Amino acid sequence: MKNVFLLILLSLFVFSCNSVKKDQVKEKDQVKENPIKSDIFPDVLTLKNIAQNPEGIEYDKNDKTFLLSSLNATPIIKVNLDGTFKPFTSGEKFPMSTAGLQIDYKNNRLLATGFNGTELFDKDPATKGISHLRIYNLETGVIEKDINLSFLVPHANAYFANDIAVDNEGNVYISDWYARVIYKVDLDGTPSVFWSNETDIQSGPNGLDFHPDGYLLVSILNVTDKGLYSDYGLLKISLNDPKSAKIVDISNTAYTGFDGMVINSKGNLIGVTNNGKTPGGNTLMELSGKNGWQSAEVINSTEITASTTVAITPDNKHYVINQDFSNRTPETWTIERIKF
Predict the structure, then answer these.
(1) In terms of DSSP H, where are the helices of the chain?
(2) What is the spatial distance between Cα 157 and Cα 214, in angstroms, rounded to a whole number?
(3) Could you tell me if 322 and 291 are in contact, meaning their C-beta atoms sit under 8 angstroms apart?
(4) Following CA atoms 50, 56, 57, 58 in sequence, which dihedral angle do they give, to the nearest 10 degrees?
(5) What residue ranges define each of the domains in the chain, with the CATH number in brackets?
(6) If we measure between CA atoms, which residue out of 222, 121, 112, 196 comes closest to residue 161?
(7) Which of 321, 334, 325, 335 is nearest to 55 (CA)?
(8) Per-residue b/e over 78-90, b at no fewer than 16 CB within 10 Å?
(9) What gap in Å lies between CA 231 and CA 52, rounded to an integer?
(10) What is the tens place of the pLDDT at every residue in 225-279?
């Protein structure tokens, strides 16, 4: 797949991984002694002196913090509402890039997609990367399980574990954008292939989330040479019958596929889409499903700075992590609240 976004990310990722030391996130520099945690939700949180390259963001309602993943294969970090932060995850046998994050409150777990970013983006056709599910204790950040997924589809061209969701029974679903499948891992840690794309839209699954009525909503898309989303669609996939996946009818042309996306407490879908004009020109959009998500309509949208996904608080505050891929070594990141 030709993907301008990932080619830009390639140069960013390889350069950053070669230039950032393992201890790049220095707690002593960023976390105040006995910091006072703010309960005020700011419009912008600014994180300085960090080369994290976060692709995923999640809000932890237990302690009112944000969690950010790391394309640079450094620890997932925990960010307070006052902008201070510290490394959170630990105990892995080897480092991996992380992308999508999902909290499973019922089972006290932080779920993260892991992949070999250096191998995936090295432009060597002989290397294909690898996809993992990494499971951490939500309170301590210590890894509990590290599950290889890509062995399930040995003939895929490449592997990129991207987004993640969990159902009411604790089953985890992971989209692999390059292998064009969705993996399933049950509560015991047994992996399987849940869904392969057999629709008329031959794209890879990217963003996904679990709907409490018993199905997944999944965004599939490609990216053109110009960095715009193409071959996109939104799917409704039944957990009991994934082969019956249906394309959700969305007539509004402003929707061009979602990267990261989350179902909010109203049952609406909030996601990051491309504006169809420029690479990195993104819009945060809200879709409302009709007739059990057989169709959907755009009810809110607003242009945002370049971002990949969104985190939503229990009272439906929307936060995006801004991504400036034109900067090869960014050390300042902003988490921005978006209001419709």
Answers:
(1) 4-19, 27-30, 117-120
(2) 31
(3) no
(4) -130
(5) 4-43+53-258 (2.120.10)
(6) 112
(7) 321
(8) bbbbebbbbbbbe
(9) 30
(10) 888 899 999 999 999 999 999 999 999 999 999 999 999 999 999 999 998 888 8
CB distance 89 to 97 below 8 Å: no
Instruction: For tokens 């692999």, name the residue.
Output: 176
How many residues can be counted in the chain?
340
Cα Rg for the chain, rounded, in angstroms? 18
Exposure string over 229-243, b if 16+ CB within 10 A, otherwise e: bebbbbbbbebeebe
pLDDT band of 8, cuts 50, 70, 90: very low
Long-range contacts of 180-188 (CB under 8 A, 24+ apart): 180/156, 180/204, 180/205, 181/152, 181/153, 181/156, 181/205, 182/208, 182/216, 182/218, 182/237, 182/242, 183/131, 183/133, 183/149, 183/152, 185/133, 185/147, 185/149, 187/107
Interior/surface letters 121-157, b for 16+ CB within 10 angstroms, e for the rest: beeeeeebbbbbbbbbebeebebeebbebbebbeebe
d(CA 295, CA 27): 47
Contact 112, 142 (CB under 8 A): no
pTM of the model as a whole = 0.90
Question: Tokens 């929307």 — which residue?
Answer: 318
pLDDT tens-place string over residues 13-55: 433 344 444 444 444 344 443 344 556 899 999 998 887 888 9
